[in-house]
Amino acid sequence: MTEIARLALKVLLLLDLLPFGALAYTWSFQSTPTQCSNLSIAISGGGTPPFNVLIIPSGSTPFSNGTEVRRIISKEFSTSSISFPINYPENSQFVAVVSDATGFGSGGTSAEAEVETSSDSSCIDASQSVTPDWFLSIENQAIVQCTPARIFWNPSNVTGTPTFFGIIPGGDSFIIPEVGINTTTDGTGTGFSWTPNIREGTILNIVGNDNRGNGTGGSSSVTVSQNLQNDNSCLNSTSPSSTAGSPAGGSYPTSTSGASTGSSSSSGGTNVGAIVGGVVGGVVGLLALLLLLYFIRRRTRQNAKNNEKPVDLLQADEGDERPNRPAQLPEYYQPDPFIVPDPTSGDESGSSAAPFSSSSERPTSSASTHDATSSSARKSAVPRTLRPVNIVQHDDAGAASTTKEEEPETIELPPAYTNIRK
């Protein structure tokens, strides 16, 4: 498989992972959440009526005395939009979940939205806290990853059989399964055991409901704790978690500084076609960029390979392009034999052995000789004569290039007095 084919395969795999059609419809806030003002929500892209929007208080109360004035709000509607008052104080937070007839949380869950400041505070009574119709309880007030947790209640305060929602801000919302409801005598009353398949560190809101409506049992916000045995056997690809990317709800403030989350829409809804087109265009652009980088890299490697030249360590003259024969040293490193003359050979003429041999064409000079009488200690009647010596300068780095004929170089040696008679 070529490199281009591998890149194309990776892009196709990315396309398979894109969340096309993850939600059959979307929703968005049509007004900024503001203290003692109406909040408007619009549905786009379909959905199956009736719709429901559930508003759950999140975080602590903004009042220093700890008074909680926020109630859980649940509103049903059959049209594509709804507007209702939200009596929450400024600088408080909430999470909104939209559902349709296909199931709870089918429209998605918002992140923690921030209530903006307003001059109208008539809907707020900070001296009195509100309470739900009944209270849900969690054993040890803790939810641990892949560890059974008991959720219980007082049946005398509940109408019918209660149900419970699990809500992850900016993520998934789901119905908590109730299996094996029983009554115990250890103080946990009537309830059931639930093993949360939610990863540690996730913020989870649990909401209690009964036949009177959603949120009648209040809500409890917990952070899923770490499993001491590092048990993650209950986790899989379908486990509830925070949703990657922008949460549901469009554009709305999420902090006191007025920062917004999501994307705004002037038409009041999210254009699904525009989202799909943008994603496909981005993927095509990514593929084109990858192909361009591949060809640039390939061309760079080819150019570098073509520009490679062998290094000539001898740095020969440009005109000398004669190749060396195999298994033979370069011309300037070939040995030049040195022949040593026999010092004992001689003749009556007084000449000695032949001078040194040299292949150099440089001129040499002979050393001057001085005839003298031999020593009385010698027995030979013929005096010993000095042998001529040629001084040769070896051109190991190559013959020196000259532009004109050079004068012979003369080297003078001092006289030898070995044959002077006493």
Automatic annotation (TrEMBL):
Biased region (Low complexity) positions are 209-225, 237-268, 349-377
Compositional bias (Polar residues): 226-236
Q: Which keywords fit this entry according to its UniProt record?
A: Membrane, Signal, Transmembrane, Transmembrane helix
Stretches that traverse the bilayer: 272-296
Q: Does the keyword Metal-binding apply?
A: no
- For region Disordered, the annotated ranges are 209-268, 307-422
Say which species the protein is native to.
Gymnopus androsaceus JB14
Record's keyword annotation contains Cell division:
no
Q: Identify the stretch annotated as signal peptide in this record.
A: 1-24
What is the protein name stated in its UniProt record? Mid2 domain-containing protein
